[in-house]
Amino acid sequence: MRVNHSTRSRTHAEVARLDSAKLDLPTLMAEAARLLAAALPYDAGCWHTMDPATMIETSFYIDDMPKPPGNQVAEFAYLTNDYNTFPKLTQGRRHSGVLTEATEGRLDRSTRYRELLRPLDIRGELRAALVADGACWGCFAFFREDPMDFTADERDFAHDVASLLGNSFRAAGARARMTGRVAALWPGLILIGEDRRVESITTPARKWLEELGFPGDVNHDPLPYALITVAERVRGNVGEASARVPGASGDWIQVLGSPALGGDPGRVAIILQAATIPSIAPLISAAYGLTARERELTDLVLEGCGTAEIARRLFISPHTVQGHLKAIFAKTGVRSRRDLVSRVFAPHGRPPLD
User: pLDDT at residue 141 above 50?
Assistant: First the structure.
């Protein structure tokens, strides 16, 4: 599957322009898949959005996959001892990897290959973490049927576009806004059994499932992927897990998972609720590319602190506070603290009290 240099150069330029296209996440994934298919031909592909704080995959877009990702895919997604995991690619010098290269040609060393890829007659796997400023906002995996594989040049091209796509995915997350629809919903509870079937569900939880785009029957159809991945993370002996997900209305939803005590082991309780400003603030700050110091200062602004109080608590001068605020305003496109709170952060949750 040879692709000439001009095709890759053109694809690279088109991917770079996605950052300013102002697409929502589902449209962005579909368009990115269309563009990369020309430069990185594949037999099947899968894209995911990611909560950068927890590295939990929250939604997906598939292209010619035999079936949508489900419990089995989510279970193997969090095997930390496998090759080319997305956390490892995020932290590595190169954010892309080919499975045959990582396993030194011994694909059977990978649990993911043995359990998921080989039964589908897939040999080539190319993965990339979409990283912006050290945080992963999404990922993709491309597959080729045996005997085809991906090359080192294709791996390097995937790395080159990964940061561009990371910026685009981050910008799409920053554009999510609260409509007020979910703030009025009561938290919902879903109890998932050891067999990964829904044992019980509250009435509000059904409303939350609608907001997550779930039109089916919980007794027969797969749950939204964000719930599946949170549940599998809990089963992976991490205790509690959470993810923040944009809903159908654009509102941010918090998915909380924890082990359910009593009864059979492996049961997981999932709570769905409206995301609050404290839970979303780190995500939004990262989405706008704020530095660690700028995030600290922004948190204090959200608490209602004035310049003198911020300076005292951060051990810096009032002049330095004003300098940081100027940088924050420039990055978020506002001109005042009031605008920062009301236009950037308050739309993502209930407005803070004066």
Answer: yes
